[in-house]
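During the reporting period, our protein records have gained a structure token line. One record among many is quoted in full directly below:
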Amino acid sequence: LPDFLDKSKQVIERVQELSIEDLQKLSQVNRSIAQTNHDRFYNWQTPFTPENAKQAILTFNGEVYNGLQAKTLNMDDFNYLQDHLRILSGLYGVLRPLDLMQPYRLEIGSGLNVGKAKNLYNFWGNLITEKLNEALEESGEPKVLVNLASGEYFKSVNTKLLKAKVIDVEFYETKDDGSLKTIVVYTKKARGMMARYIIQNRIEDPEDLKGFDAEGYWFSPQLSNEQKLVFMR
């Protein structure tokens, strides 16, 4: 079960106050998607069971998860995944891959106010960072966090309090004129593919991340440094 379900209930109670039009504006989606999410929030309930909820890693979709392809991993991979991967969430705070969850759509940067918190960053405060530190402590040495989250989500982590070396990873497309461009949809998928690479190769040494070469990407030593790894194709 997610560690912060009591906090999640507070968020749910807040979004249940919103109309379909409010959700449409908050999430900047069309009315059909807003209606679907309105229904999801209305029907959200605890306790979570295998009948009304599903493992997080098998519930989330989108390009990151298309790159990860979690449904094709084996049981040993899932065991490694559970110990080494954490998912940042506006509704659940931090999720382990096999935590049960009910589907939702709520971006952490959406600007939703909850109680006295003016947005979800304020609502979660340092809880997300503290939970990441717990996972890092359990992981042993070296304490390294490979950041495969978007900037919007990584803002929820207080890096000043994080007890680990953070390695950012960036992905670029090479244009015909030799310039580099970030294409969001490709970057999202590449983040998922990198997560899969770490899982399947049981990466423990950050140096071994440089061997990532899925779908034509290659490591650029010229653009990389100790805090940032850059991959191009």
Notes: The first strand starts at residue 54 and ends at 55. The chain has a mean pLDDT of 94. The beta strands are 54-55, 87-89, 93-95, 100-101, 144-147, 165-174, 180-181, 218-219, 228-232.
